[in-house]
Amino acid sequence: MDTKLGYSSKYKTHLTSDITKEREGEEALISGWITTFRKKGKIAFIKIRDAAGIAQIVVKKDQVSEEIWESMSDFTMETVIRIKGTIVADDRSQTGAELKPELIDIIAKSDTLPIDLTSKKTETLIDTIFEYRQLSIRRPESIAIFKIKHHIGQAVRQFYTSNGFYEIWTPYILGASTEGGAEMFKVDYFNTPAVLAQSNQFYKQATIPVFEKVFGIIPSWRAEKSRTPKHITEFHQIETEIAFGTDETIMEVQEKLVHHVVSHVLEHCKAELKLLGRENLKIPTLPLKRIPFPEAKAMGTELSEAAIDGHKEPEGDLSTPAETELSKHYDDPFFIIRFPTELRGMYYGSDPDDENITLSLDLVAPEGIGELSSGGVRVDDPDELVERTLKKGMDPELFKWYIDMFKFGGAPHAGFGLGFERLVRWITGVSHIREAVMFPRTPDLLEP
Hints:
The chain is α+β, with helices and mostly antiparallel strands.
């Protein structure tokens, strides 16, 4: 007979979070992975982990059978065990109670671990952590990060659905690049050249006549050999597109989205934030600051050249050092607005009064995290798109279906793509974006 939680009564009828003083005297059956085990004379202390957290079991030799006492000689870290017993209140326990065992079974014994999974500050090398990523995701810090990431995903979907957006899913294999450049993963699609999607830009625009307001948490791939704390080759973007929207529309959506997500995490992830040292995370004050690109460029140049010996800021877009130092200058996320047309993709719309400036923007996180999103008003005229494509050195024929669709009721619209893992990195405070991914892909990481 299964419980309402879907667990088999053979292995589990309760979660570790059910072992509370309010349930004192109740019988419980829990299963999980050993995180701590030690014997001290005639007492043994066990902590086991399941999806809900940690439960403590104290075993006294004179209160259990000899068989149970001896079976614990085979306990190793991460061994899977089943424990049946009575809940007893104990203020010394994390949950205010512990389980007094009557039955302990080993379900699956673990070999000696190749890395330390405890919450202690060990000297485990970061490369070793990712070499054994299938194990290191069990570390308390990693569990906290991915529980927060789960709640961020929940909050994102809550925000959009409550504001009348439709969620969309778009293709991952494309006939041509949406972003241009050489940063594409090429694939052989039944003897036809294809690429993995750098973004879903064209496809979310195609849905505008159907739903008007759309979003999706969509995977993307970029063949960048960048080895910086903010780059990975496989990631997710919170994609958004809004019919009849402007640059101001999408800035308002983004700042309210970030406000909602941070508020949700602060409410639901207190223990995880504390474990990660992020209990001081604060809800951003709205509206977020808007900084024109020339001002941001000048400030980033000054800050980076003062902070980094020998750094000379190049012409053009903000360099990574300049963006990082600028990001450190603010306590809340902020927007950089009105980027030069030459720095943006062919689908970004220009200011009607100055074709050299786009009605585009980046959302930048504080604390040195840097860019979270890029977006702006889109070009909705097919002739202008052809002209823009040619200026970018690309063949309009490769984008024929995309350009032609604007001949059939192309409407003004605007949108953005916000890096999901970059958002997780900022909220959790991890030093590198790969820590925000269960199984990250970088130029140096393909396994596990």
